[in-house]
């Protein structure tokens, strides 16, 4: 009952019981609400931050400070992102790190490039990886914990590739903030302490138990000074030797041993898998978007598959353009029931296409030969006709996938599955280069495996469980394969949606944004974009808006943020409605006439810094 445990709030007990499928991937796409982000850890109001020349936004203040230090020292956006990522490996280990994968979208002032550092399945992985002995999908937690779910980490090689092209400072310098903090110690943050106390699996790993817990097995409280000498040593090696120090030699061997030696759930990750990993530079997925108020034309760019993020965000925004949504302003600062009806209907259509089509493009064909076919205005206008946009229009009975280009569907839709555990970084540098990077080890605390070379140094780094982003079910009852099934060397489908928005006319940067949150990343990012582009909110106000969305089943609303009337009005339109914490972690930096304005999510610990 992962979502139930994460949210562990008494008020949610009934919801969790009601949600058949909290423990298992459910059979019907989007029929449950278990695909939730990491647990909630309270809210702290954020002011929003104005800067003149550069800015960095990350999910932990120590991460942001490291980025700021590098930008101040004349580093580029990519230089700063590397420093931030290394510090996050230490101070926000539950969400991202050198044992995981990431997507980075970069704007050099002229063009956008998409860097794909997504994990790959080891050569030994098979389509039945997550089926039990009787051929049924394993319970999610059984699949996650252990070596089985570990994909080949891609973040460090991806950052090295981006650094070769866009770095200004020496690679080694970018590791110094993290090495210093790991050596001298950092204070455990309230969020890390909350998530440590809530996790029943991490302490089963002896290395993690000795690092994150005291000798009585109690998790370190917020404020505890924690040192990670093993990570300091690993980062020093990466600084000196480059990314190969992680993917070959003794550190690689320690990862392989960790995966193979899990007592009950080993995996197949090998030295060859690590050596062979290659990050990719992909054509970004960009689409035009006309905002209503103020009327302005944008070019929105995101990550193409294997992420479903930009496609789904683009479909939702595009579908809404064929409705009255853009004429519906906020009421008392909140989205109205009329608008939420249209938004969630658009989302149901987008999630149906996502389940049907999106997977690693090196393994599956895009529908009608191009991922852009899913964003064609004519296709979306035809899809939007399924939505009942009339006064008190009702929820669609079913929201099936479409057939862009009228090409028949070759794949079975992927059943709904949980996704968690991620961090978002947005940066602009003094040269006007910008990036949006979303980085993950998948579940909170990943596979619950802490890598340590056994040299007597405490700590280490966590391995991802990204392979659980593949479909557990490889085929439907008729034997039609699911596009996102496990295959050796394949990248699992993601929801991560790092986004850069440009002005369509001038080509100038308008904003960088993104969020963690599993499949809800799509809604958190769409909300931030819609709030800024259509409702004229600044980055902080847009992030502060209550969260909402659907994965195809009930309409999910952030609890205690909407008036009862909204909930009631949605029910009158036949929407089942569930209220949940929905802790997003959006970071956004927008360009202003005076420089930049950044916002960070009050639901997490992020801050923005700059000059
Ligand atoms: N593993 C997920 C993905 O790549 C992200 C998990 C999360 O954000 O919580 O889409």
Task: Please give a structural write-up.
The chain has 611 residues and is of the alpha+beta class. The protein has a domain at 27-281 and 421-549 and 582-610: Glutamine Phosphoribosylpyrophosphate, subunit 1, domain 1, CATH 3.60.20. The chain is built from 19 helices and 21 strands. The protein has helices at 2-7, 13-18, 61-72, 77-91, 140-144, 155-166, 176-184, 190-198, 206-212, 229-241, 244-247, 249-260, 271-276, 309-321, 337-357, 377-384, 521-533, 539-544, 564-572; strands at residues 49-51, 55-58, 101-107, 112-117, 186-187, 225-226, 280-282, 285-291, 296-302, 422-428, 434-440, 450-451, 461-462, 499-503, 509-514, 548-549, 555-558, 577-580, 587-592, 595-600, 607-610. It has a seven-stranded antiparallel sheet with strand order 1-20-19-15-14-9-8. A seven-stranded antiparallel sheet has the order 7-4-3-11-10-2-21, covered by helices on one side. Strand 10 and strand 11 (434-440) form a beta hairpin. Helix 4 (77-91) packs antiparallel against helix 6 (155-166), helix 4 (77-91) packs parallel to helix 7 (176-184) and helix 14 (309-321) packs across helix 15. The radius of gyration is 22 Å and the shape is globular. The structure holds glutamic acid (GLU). Glutamic acid binds at residues 37-38, 419-422, 440, 442, 469, 494-496, 516-518, 521.
Concise synopsis of the structure shown:
By secondary structure, the chain is of the alpha+beta class.
């Amino acid at each position: 009952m992962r979502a139930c445990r994460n949210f562990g709030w008494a008020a949610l007990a009934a919801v969790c019981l009601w949600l058949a499928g909290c423990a298992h991937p459910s059979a019907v796409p989007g029929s449950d609400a278990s695909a939730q982000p990491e647990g909630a850890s309270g809210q702290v109001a954020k002011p929003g931050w104005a800067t003149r020349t550069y800015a960095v936004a990350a999910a932990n203040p120590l991460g942001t400070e490291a980025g700021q230090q590098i930008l101040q020292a004349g580093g580029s956006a990519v230089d700063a992102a590397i420093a931030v990522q290394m510090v996050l490996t230490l101070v926000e280990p539950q969400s991202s790190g050198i044992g995981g994968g990431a997507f980075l979208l970069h704007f050099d002032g002229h063009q956008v490039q998409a860097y794909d550092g997504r994990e790959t399945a080891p050569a030994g992985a098979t389509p039945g990886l997550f089926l039990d002995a009787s051929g049924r999908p394993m319970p999610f937690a059984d699949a996650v914990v252990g070596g089985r779910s570990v994909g080949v980490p891609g973040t460090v090689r991806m950052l090295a590739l981006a650094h070769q092209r866009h770095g200004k400072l020496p690679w080694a310098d970018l590791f110094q903030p993290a090495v210093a903090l790991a050596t001298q110690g950092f204070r455990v943050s309230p969020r890390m302490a909350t998530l440590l106390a809530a996790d029943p699996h991490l302490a089963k790993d002896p290395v993690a138990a000795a690092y994150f817990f005291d000798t009585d097995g109690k998790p370190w409280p917020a404020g505890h000074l924690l040192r990670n000498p093993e990570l300091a040593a690993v980062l020093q090696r990466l600084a000196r030797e480059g990314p190969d120090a992680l993917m070959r030699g003794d550190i690689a061997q320690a990862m392989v041993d960790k995966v193979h030696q899990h007592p009950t759930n080993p995996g197949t990750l090998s030295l060859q898998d690590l050596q062979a990993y290659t990050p990719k530079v992909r054509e970004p997925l960009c689409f035009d978007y006309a905002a209503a108020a103020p009327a302005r034309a944008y070019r929105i760019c995101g990550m193409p598959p294997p992420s479903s993020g930009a496609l789904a965000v683009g479909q939702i925004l595009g579908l809404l353009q064929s409705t009255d949504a853009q004429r519906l302003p906020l009421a008392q600062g909140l989205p109205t029931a009329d608008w939420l009806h249209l938004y969630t209907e658009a989302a149901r259509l987008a999630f149906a296409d996502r389940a049907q089509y999106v997977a690693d493009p090196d393994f599956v064909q895009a529908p009608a030969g191009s991922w852009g076919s899913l964003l064609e205005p004519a296709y979306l206008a035809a899809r939007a006709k399924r939505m009942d946009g009339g006064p008190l229009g009702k929820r669609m009975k079913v929201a099936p996938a479409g057939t862009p280009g009228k090409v028949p569907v070759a794949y079975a839709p992927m059943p709904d599955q949980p996704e968690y555990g991620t961090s978002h970084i947005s940066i602009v540098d003094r040269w006007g280069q910008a990036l949006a990077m979303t980085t993950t080890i998948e579940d909170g605390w990943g596979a619950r495996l802490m890598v340590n070379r056994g040299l007597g140094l405490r700590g280490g780094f966590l391995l991802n469980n990204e392979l659980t982003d593949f479909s557990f079910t490889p085929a439907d009852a008729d034997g039609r394969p699911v596009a996102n099934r496990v295959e050796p060397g394949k990248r699992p489908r993601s929801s991560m949606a790092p986004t850069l928005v440009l002005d369509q006319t001038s080509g100038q940067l308008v904003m960088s944004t993104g969020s963690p949150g599993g499949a809800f990343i799509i809604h958190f990012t769409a909300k931030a974009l819609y709030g800024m582009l259509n409702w004229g909110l600044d980055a902080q106000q847009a992030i502060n808006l209550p969260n909402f969305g659907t994965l195809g089943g009930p309409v999910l609303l952030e609890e205690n943020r909407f008036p009862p009337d909204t909930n009631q009005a949605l029910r009158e339109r036949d929407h089942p409605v569930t209220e949940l914490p929905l802790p997003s972690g959006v970071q956004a930096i927008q360009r202003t006439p005076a420089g930049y304005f950044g916002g960070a999510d009050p639901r997490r610990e992020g801050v923005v810094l700059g000059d």
